[in-house]
Amino acid sequence: MAGTTTRAEVAVLFDWNGWWGLEELWGLPRNDFHYVDSVMRHYRPLWEHPHAVDVVSPHSDLSGYKVLVVPKAYLMDDEGVAAVTG
Q: What is the DSSP letter of 71?
């Protein structure tokens, strides 16, 4: 309805540092990590069945979510780890 809002209880974490770290691993024999594809494989089924889903960063306020999906966590700083595990 016009003028109403829906609060998502589910969030998918998107971490720019993790994306960079997984896809820019120069010198490895093969690099077939596709971070964005992995995030979308987690996000899409939730959105399609229909759940309100937010895409958040590790530095977002995560306290209001009942479910937090964290695909391929990599290179997360201490603040992000505390937010995700806290």
A: T
Fold of the domain built from segment(s) 10-85: Rossmann fold (3.40.50)
pLDDT in tens, 30-54: 566 788 999 999 999 998 988 899 9
Q: How far apart are CA 36 and CA 23, in angstroms?
A: 10
How far is it, in rounded angstroms, from Cα 65 to Cα 57?
13
Boundaries of every domain in the chain: 10-85
What does the DSSP 8-state code read for residue 56?
Answer: E
Query: Phi/psi at 58 (nearest 5 deg)?
Result: -65, -15
Angle, helices 16-23 vs 35-48, to 10°: value is: 130
